[in-house]
Amino acid sequence: MKEEPRLEGTFTAMLQLEVAPGISFVEGERRGRFPFGNVVVLQGRAQRVLVDTGAGDGILDAVMAGGPFDVVINSHYHIDHVRGNGRVPAPVFWCPAGEADAFTSEEGFLRFTGLDLPGLDIAKVFRQGLGWTPTPISRELADGEVLDFGGLEAAVLRLPGHTPGHTGLWFPAERVIFSADIDLASFGPWYGDVYASVDDYLASLRRLDALVDEASGGGRHRITILTSHRRPLSYESFKERLPGFTARFGEREERILGLLTAEGPLTLDELAARWPIYGPLAPKLPGIWKSEYLMLRHHLDRLATSGRVVAEGVQLGGKDLWRAL
Ligand SMILES: [Zn+2]
């Protein structure tokens, strides 16, 4: 992976693309890469809405110069989607159903992310470095709800797995889908929080793919898929990228099974120290241990359910030993 230069200063130049009437994609700092993210501006006749706030201060200020927002919708509680919540003087914040605790209380945020797990002494570092602030939530969005902003309607599209409530939006009249962190980036899917789920993520990918087919009439109509960390995708680029993105789950499980077969049995800590998820990227990503650990844990639980690994009764320092079957 190529190192990006560290830039000083504040970004104010903004890449904004009106992908359909009333729907504008705005690229976040560093091309929307973590810890920033792209945002979407919705301009209805009745309401002006901002979807996510992680674009970075300068870009967010430039977006707000276009007029005040009536509503902010957060796709989920991750810092790269909410980091600007305190900067937007919106009267109301909406979040996915079931995730409000992660917005309103620090304890909730730490519980959802797993940063409070015993033994993970990086919690303090993250708390100090992330700049998390509480957001008052006035509405929780349920799957299938239709949001009418005045001549611009969006259906709430729940796509769990990345987080339990991870939510996108579907604009049927404009044939635009916002799929948030299902971004089809080359790293693959991320599910390194406590309530993330590989099975839910796979189901969400199938659901999104079916919607892309339906929305485009099997590729006959032009559609646009907006994501939080990449530039907009077309039907063709979505279809080209989806198989490789989906295959990452299986590739990671094969690496885990390979390690357990060659070196096992191993504890979760010992497995995580071999970085089967992040691989050679790990040394470049400080603080990534928690993600490796929890993504691994989700895979081991899943592999245990399907009878491919077993947690042995032997305890080492209170930790199970995992063995491939
Ligand atoms: Zn996220």
Protein described:
The chain has a seven-stranded mixed beta sheet with strand order 1-2-3-4-5-6-7, with no helix packed on it. The chain has a five-stranded mixed beta sheet with strand order 8-9-10-11-12, covered by helices on one side. With 325 residues, it is an alpha/beta fold. It is globular. The longest helix is centred in the C-terminal third of the chain and has 29 residues, at 235-263. The protein has ten helices and 15 strands. Helix 3 (79-82) links the parallel strand 5 (71-73) and strand 6 (92-96). It has two domains: 16-246, Ribonuclease Z/Hydroxyacylglutathione hydrolase-like (Metallo-beta-lactamase, Chain A); 249-314, no CATH class. Helix 7 packs antiparallel against helix 8. It has helices spanning 29-32, 57-64, 79-82, 100-104, 106-113, 123-130, 198-216, 235-263, 268-272, 289-305, and strands spanning 16-20, 23-26, 39-43, 48-51, 71-73, 92-96, 139-141, 146-148, 153-158, 167-171, 176-178, 224-226, 266-267, 309-316, 319-324. The structure holds zinc ion (ZN). Zinc ion (ZN) binds next to loops. Zinc ion is lined by residues 76, 78, 162, 181.
